[in-house]
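tool=predict chain=A
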Amino acid sequence: MAGRGGRSPEPVTGDGPAAGRSDLDLLRAHVAGDRDAFTELFHRHRDRLWAVALRTVGDREEAADALQDALLSAHRAAARFRGDSAVTTWLHRIVVNACLDRIRRRQAHATVPLPDGVRGDGESGRHTGGVEPAAPAHDHDTALVVRQALAQLPAEQRAALVLVDVQGYPVVEVARILGVAEGTVKSRCARGRARLAGLLGHLRTGSDETADVRRVTGGNPGPPEGVGSTSGWSRRDASQEDT
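tool=predict ok
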């Protein structure tokens, strides 16, 4: 639920001393020299940040690198946070920008992403990031096709669709994350959906319904607030800048 002024309240999750501190409190504590505050902030939101990076980039290894780049950038730039948006919005903006940077850099070497967690030699890749929601077994092939179709969208359309349709963020929040007008988000989503409809037309069922992109990509059905988990990246990954 949005707070006064349309901003989402800062979630407070978890146990221990940091549980009573808001995201903004943790960020300010980090700036003030608290060596554990940024790690706690990352642990509080890592699953959703990882999901956004993975769906936006489409490749587990590149998503892990993009998320690492983003977290290092956020770690260093914390003192410049102005407080004109929620901390989660600020973090997501940095992650999405890092993903878009990687997508643009690799456009000259376009490839179709392999299924998540698989390297070119066919062996399982190293596990990175939060536990990825898996599609049901009967939807597995469809999920891979949809992910490949997402990878063919222009980067800006893909980012908007991932945030709105897969992650379930409201348009107003996605506009803040991407730093564009709400109308731009709606336009990018509409164009992206239209293009996906063409790419995924063969997935229409007997009832003439198109595949549910959010369902087959393992999107998070719940609201984007208050995310916290004990799975995923290690504390060392998030806090290496402290050393």
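DSSP finds ten helices and no strands in the chain. Residues 1-17, 112-138, 206-211, 216-243 have pLDDT under 50 and may be disordered.
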